[in-house]
Amino acid sequence: MKKGIIILGSSNSNGDTRKIVSFISEKISYPVIDLKTKNIAEFDYEFKNKNDDFHPLIKEIVNTYEIILFATPVYWYSMSGTMKTFFDRISDCLKIAKETGRKLRGIEMAVISCGSDKELKNGFHMPFIETANYLGMNYTSDVHCWLENGTIPMEVQKNLNTVIASIH
Ligand SMILES: Cc1cc2nc3c(=O)[nH]c(=O)nc-3n(C[C@H](O)[C@H](O)[C@H](O)COP(=O)(O)O)c2cc1C
Fold first, then answer.
1. Is the pTM of this model over 0.70?
2. Structurally, how many domains does the chain consist of?
3. Mutate which of 14, 75, 79 for ligand 1 pocket (most atoms within 8 A of beta carbon)
4. CATH of the domain at 94
C-alpha cells in the first residue's frame, strides 16, 4: 500500500467530512491532518506568514508520503475556505520553498468531498485537477460523499471502498 496522508479541511473537526475520513483511515490507517487545528494563514505576497504551521507541514508531507487525500466539505459549490487557503499557500512553494515545491512532483492526489447533495455541480474538481497538473502531481481519483441521518449510506461506503482498494 502506498504511504499516504489525509488532509481534512472542514470547519467542523467532528463533522460529516470527519466521519468520512474516519471511515477511510480505519481501513487504511492513514494519518489525518485536521487543518482546523493548524495555524495556517492566507497567502501573503510578502510571505509574512512564512513562520506559521504551513511550511513544516508541507515539508513533512513531501518528504514522507506518496499520496495525499484531500477531504473537504462542499461549501457553496466549492472546496471549503480552509482547504482553499491550504492550496493558496502552496504558492509559497513556488517562490520561497522551491525544493519542497519540486518534491510535490509525482505525488498522487485524490479528493474526497462531502456535501448535503448527492451530486456535485460541474467543475467542482477542476481546481484540484488543474493544480495537480500545474504542480506535476498525479490526480488519481475522487469520490463524492454524503450522510443520511448521520451515517454513511451503503452507496457511499461502496464508492469509498473502491477508492481505498485502488490505493495499493
Ligand atoms: C457554508 C456552507 C455551505 C454549504 N454549501 C453546500 C453546497 O454548495 N452544496 C452542498 O451539497 N452542501 C452544502 N453545504 C452542506 C455541507 O456540505 C454538508 O452539510 C456537509 O456534510 C458538511 O460537512 P462538515 O460537517 O464537514 O462541514 C454547505 C454547508 C455550509 C456550512
1. yes
2. 1
3. 75
4. 3.40.50.360
